[in-house]
Amino acid sequence: MNTQPRIYVAGHNGLVGSAIVRVLRAQGHTNIVTRSHAELELTDQAQVRAFFRNERIDQVYLAAAKVGGIHANNTYPADFIYDNMMVQANVVHEAWRNGVNKLLFLGSSCIYPRLARQPIKEEYLMSGMLEPTNEPYAMAKIAGIKLCESYNRQYGTDYRSVMPTNLYGPGDNYHPENSHVIPALMRRFHEAKLAGAPEVVIWGSGKPMREFLYVDDMAEASVYVMNLDHATYASYTDPMHSHINVGTGEDVTIADLARLVGETVGYRGRIAFDPTKPDGTPRKLLDVSKLKSLGWQARTPLPEGLRRAYAAFVDLVADQEKRAAA
After folding, report:
1. Percent of the chain scored above 70 by pLDDT?
2. Residues forming the annotated binding site?
3. Which pTM value belongs to this model?
4. Could you give all domains of the chain from N- to C-terminal order, each with its CATH number?
5. In which pathway does it act (predicted)?
6. Residue 47 exposed, middle or buried by CB count within 10 Å (0-12, 13-18, 19+)
7. Residue 160: pLDDT band by 50, 70, 90 thresholds?
8. Catalytic residue chosen out of the listed positions 8, 61, 112, 137
9. What are the DSSP calls for 300-326, one per residue?
10. Is 137 annotated in the active site?
11. Is the pLDDT assigned to residue 299 strictly greater than 70?
């Protein structure tokens, strides 16, 4: 009989979920349950209820989410708030109904006010106005945190939340319009290099500052936080601010990031910026002192993470081309 906990990773095909599966397997876990979107529609309460009733899950990593960059958030605000709120409500509620005591919810640093003091501490949540370009997504993620806190307060569950900074790495979304900044830059510079384009134009002024975390570091932090004993976790949080920031504690301007991605890809042309396009939040640097005090910190420097991410992107493109030619 397998005595390991039965762990459900929701969103295992996504950037974060796939990394969590990699980390769990590397740590020797074999009793991992996954379902593709085609196999289980998490916005459908009846399907989620049947899944938890049949699978006898012990732990849940809730990494399933609808995500995207500024363009996607501006274009599909209803999809971002509806899909994410439904997924969270269904998974958390049905986990509780079926006796799952341990759950880890993965949020996003965009939950914090647009003009929050820097670096951003966990207690700054809901202390100011959100960034308008991704407010629906941020509201859904805030609801997810409060959902976990509410079930803990009412039912005594151990549902925890981690708030990662901007993530990147293998398994990322490289869609030309709906992706986040690093995969979008990587694809644009790669295509510009192949085409011999003399210039790449980047949205915005290049002045905003962002923090970036390699996704396997995020996955390690998630498993680490999940496995902390309850007393230790509770001593660093409180019932109304139970989430923990996950990041590197360092940030970079978008202009410097663009140059670094260009160098990683091997693009030799000019880099220009279009200040008529939105910048988004001026700065988002997380205060990660709480997580460091709990014994974990990121270990992958940005240049090394970008090299790994680009290698994964090149492999993905080669595989897609191979399939198209078959």
Report:
1. 98
2. 11-17, 106-109, 141, 164-167, 180, 188, 203, 210, 279
3. 0.93
4. 7-325 (3.40.50.720)
5. Nucleotide-sugar biosynthesis; GDP-L-fucose biosynthesis via de novo pathway; GDP-L-fucose from GDP-alpha-D-mannose: step 2/2
6. middle
7. very high
8. 137
9. --HHHHHHHHHHHHHHHHHHHHHHHH-
10. yes
11. yes
